[in-house]
């Protein structure tokens, strides 16, 4: 009887094996058929497909595929948009040697946000003058010492994220004869500092997008000041888009401030009406403080479907993990996520990974850049990287007693969820953390090739 059962078991096992083998063979055949069909496409159509992709992805997929596709990538005249915001150190070195340096005349757009890359001697930022057809240069997280060399050589568009008043004091006088499109995020800057920068730099501006935060200077909401500045130093301005967030200190202690939208009386002169520039102001109370946001209305404000969003900033403090998962289910194309903080109250690391919604978001989201401005514990990091397994850049705060354990977890080669991670920014770090982190990496050989940099109170690691 046992022999009969054993024979039946072996028969079932053999049957399962044959099925698996058949499926594997069929899958391989389909894959070969797909590759064959793709290779039969004409060059013109393949170039159209290339045009729909990030060129770094084109390089990764086709550069070493075979001789034909190698030549299509190398010998093409299609313009290249270079995005170096989330790229590892070793990958950058290959990409720079194979694509950027040999194709300087094909590069039309260059985007950098990795703070360490500005100091790299092989960075394309040091040979901008050789990019003769460069039309758009986007710089995030750049120090003012680099701007002194870069700004005079810019062409028509400038995007600078998080520039503070202290940075402008280090900046020289620039002559930017071709700069017409400007987008700025100002931090802790007063109106006079901004005005000085405008006089020197923005004479030819046609489009100005500006966001001001952490500034207590009420002059940013003064219509007369703006009118005088624009007429005197930005006479060609066609689009003026502003968002100014201010904290209002009043004698009202009842805490019952009502949220309301109100038009701005002093922005209703003929100067503003003629240019069709309209504004409103929203008041609200948060954390026992009165806030006001002055912002542009039509034609700049647009409501777009959640599925079209690519960047999500959540100001809720703290945001429950379950609510975050619900939100991400509605925004499948987000690639950049910024959280003020995240709450894990009542969440268990092992059980949450069995949650169906967690698994769905984890498998389908395309988020590569995550910022969590609140302190992260090891457990919170484990959940974050399990939820965002395609993460390439992480910005967060860490507790001093968790520094080594958290960094060790993120750099472990056996950690499948951090395979794509290549950049870590630690906010509000202590100066001694630089030495602690370097000692950890060297003593445990966690990284072979990396760059570690401390700026102000922030620590940056790129590998």
TrEMBL record:
Residues 35-82 form the F-box domain. It comes from the Eukaryota. InterPro entries: F-box_dom. This is F-box domain-containing protein. It comes from Adineta steineri.
């Amino acid at each position: 009887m046992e022999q009969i059962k054993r024979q039946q078991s072996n028969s079932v096992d053999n049957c399962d094996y044959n099925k698996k083998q058949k499926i594997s063979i069929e899958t391989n055949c389909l894959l070969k058929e797909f590759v064959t069909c793709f290779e039969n496409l004409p060059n013109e159509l393949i170039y159209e497909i290339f045009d729909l992709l990030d060129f770094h992805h084109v390089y990764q997929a086709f550069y070493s595929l075979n001789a034909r596709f190698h030549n299509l990538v190398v010998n093409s005249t299609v313009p290249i948009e270079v995005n170096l915001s989330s790229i590892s150190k070793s990958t950058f070195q290959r990409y720079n040697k194979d694509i950027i340096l040999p194709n300087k005349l094909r590069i039309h757009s260059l985007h950098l946000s990795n703070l360490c890359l500005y100091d790299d001697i092989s960075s394309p930022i040091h040979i901008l003058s050789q990019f003769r057809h460069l039309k758009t240069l986007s710089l995030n997280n750049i120090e003012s010492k680099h701007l002194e060399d870069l700004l005079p050589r810019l062409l028509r568009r400038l995007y600078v994220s998080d520039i503070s008043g202290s940075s402008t004091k280090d900046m020289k006088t620039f002559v930017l004869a071709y700069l017409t499109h400007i987008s700025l995020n100002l931090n802790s800057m007063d109106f006079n500092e901004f005005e000085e920068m405008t006089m020197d730099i923005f004479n030819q501006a046609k489009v100005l997008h500006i966001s001001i935060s952490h500034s207590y200077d009420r002059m940013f909401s003064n219509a007369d000041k703006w009118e005088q500045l624009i007429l005197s130093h930005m006479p060609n301005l066609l689009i003026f888009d502003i968002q100014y967030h201010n904290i209002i200190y009043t004698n009202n202690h009842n805490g019952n401030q009502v949220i309301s939208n109100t038009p701005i009386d002093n922005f209703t002169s003929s100067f503003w009406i003629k240019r069709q520039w309209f504004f409103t102001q929203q008041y609200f109370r948060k954390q026992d403080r009165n806030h006001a946001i002055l912002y542009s209305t039509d034609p700049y404000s647009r409501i777009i479907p959640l599925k079209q969003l690519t960047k999500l900033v959540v100001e809720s403090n703290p945001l429950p993990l379950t609510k975050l998962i619900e939100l991400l289910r509605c925004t499948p194309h987000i690639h950049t996520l910024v959280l003020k903080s995240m709450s894990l109250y009542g969440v268990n690391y092992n059980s949450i990974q069995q949650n169906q919604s967690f698994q769905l978001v984890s498998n389908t989201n395309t988020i590569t850049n995550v910022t969590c401005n609140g302190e992260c514990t090891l457990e919170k990091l484990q959940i974050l990287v399990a939820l965002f397994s395609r993460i390439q850049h992480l910005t967060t705060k860490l507790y001093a007693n968790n520094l080594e354990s958290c960094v060790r977890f993120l750099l472990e080669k056996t950690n499948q969820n951090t395979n794509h991670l290549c950049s870590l920014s630690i906010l509000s770090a202590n100066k001694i953390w630089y030495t602690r982190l370097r000692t950890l990496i060297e003593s445990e050989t966690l990284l072979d090739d990396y760059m570690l940099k401390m700026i102000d109170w922030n620590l940056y690691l790129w590998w």
